[in-house]
Amino acid sequence: MIFRTFGWSFAITVVGLIAGFLYGGASALAVVAILAVLEISLSFDNAVVNAKVLQRMSPFWQKIFLTIGIAIAVFGMRLVFPIVVVALTAQMSPWATLDMAFNEPDRYHAEMEFAYPMIAAFGGMFLMMLFLNWVFEDRDIHWLAWLEKPLLRIGKLEQLPVVIAGATLACVGTWVADDAHRTNVLIAGLLGIVTYILVNGLGELFNNPELTEEESSKGPNGLVLATGKAGFFLFLYLEVLDASFSFDGVIGAFAISTDPIIIAIGLGVGAMYIRSMTVFLVRQGTLSEFKYLEHGAHWAIGALAVCMMISIGHHLSEWITGGIGAGLIILALISSIILRKRDGVAASDAEELESSRL
């Protein structure tokens, strides 16, 4: 099971390390390995949330996620996307930006940091909408019940996530963003909200129980699996989610290396493990086995969204944002294990009581 799910990740790791060695020698190989670990540590909450979406997709779209999706993640989000963003903010052609990335890496890094507030506003608002829609969603299981239950009652107000996200964006644009970035931050944040509503809404529109048998199928857990248009929009949703997570990793990677090729290889290897981890969580049924894991991941995403909003005006280390997310997921995992043991003891006591009655 491990090799079947992570086989491609192991293969890409070997290829990536060899490519790094051939490109820049032993030092480049070491940097590739460090960047891969950085990407995995910063994105585990991404894998958990991805798994929640991926379990609603058909096997065909799961394969697309692991093939075409990983190509988009490695080359699109971790190499092309930063170049396009810098080209737009610096008002340069993509080719001139690419030349700057290879020949003037320090200037390229500075331009990318200048563009960061807009990226943080877009990604932060997208992730905040994801978190708010989850936290106000009706559910039977609560991890932080003292907090989640009151929020659930408040969430009965119509369009509350949009109201909170919009108010947060207005506050950030007014008091956190500086004068040079204020307008662009507000526009980027608004686009993040609109993108979430559009992509999530289209996914829900095409993924409903009234689909015909040709348009849907059922998985082993009884969930209706999204195919066709529904599968495509869920795939698109996952790619936008990955983009929201990826830019923090790209910025953090420049503290380790300024070479865009080495960064793309290292983060690409890490991204492959995140994809494989997502599939592993789905196939093993981990989310249903560890009931609070999904909660921890969403609270981690909420924390990341807040950190991204703060980072528009104040520098926050990627290790801080990644550490908060990892800490929340670890706490959720520990709580899930305790719950499993408690349920197991309760089930055992019930069986003994039933046997004594017989």
From TrEMBL:
<dbReference type="Pfam" id="PF04332">
    <property type="entry name" value="DUF475"/>
</dbReference>
<feature type="transmembrane region" description="Helical">
    <location>
        <begin position="157"/>
        <end position="177"/>
    </location>
</feature>
<keyword id="KW-0812">Transmembrane</keyword>
<protein>
    <recommendedName>
        <fullName>DUF475 domain-containing protein</fullName>
    </recommendedName>
</protein>
<feature type="transmembrane region" description="Helical">
    <location>
        <begin position="222"/>
        <end position="238"/>
    </location>
</feature>
<feature type="transmembrane region" description="Helical">
    <location>
        <begin position="295"/>
        <end position="313"/>
    </location>
</feature>
<feature type="transmembrane region" description="Helical">
    <location>
        <begin position="6"/>
        <end position="38"/>
    </location>
</feature>
<feature type="transmembrane region" description="Helical">
    <location>
        <begin position="319"/>
        <end position="339"/>
    </location>
</feature>
<feature type="transmembrane region" description="Helical">
    <location>
        <begin position="64"/>
        <end position="90"/>
    </location>
</feature>
<feature type="transmembrane region" description="Helical">
    <location>
        <begin position="183"/>
        <end position="202"/>
    </location>
</feature>
<keyword id="KW-0472">Membrane</keyword>
<keyword id="KW-1133">Transmembrane helix</keyword>
<dbReference type="InterPro" id="IPR007427">
    <property type="entry name" value="DUF475"/>
</dbReference>
<feature type="transmembrane region" description="Helical">
    <location>
        <begin position="114"/>
        <end position="136"/>
    </location>
</feature>
<feature type="transmembrane region" description="Helical">
    <location>
        <begin position="250"/>
        <end position="274"/>
    </location>
</feature>
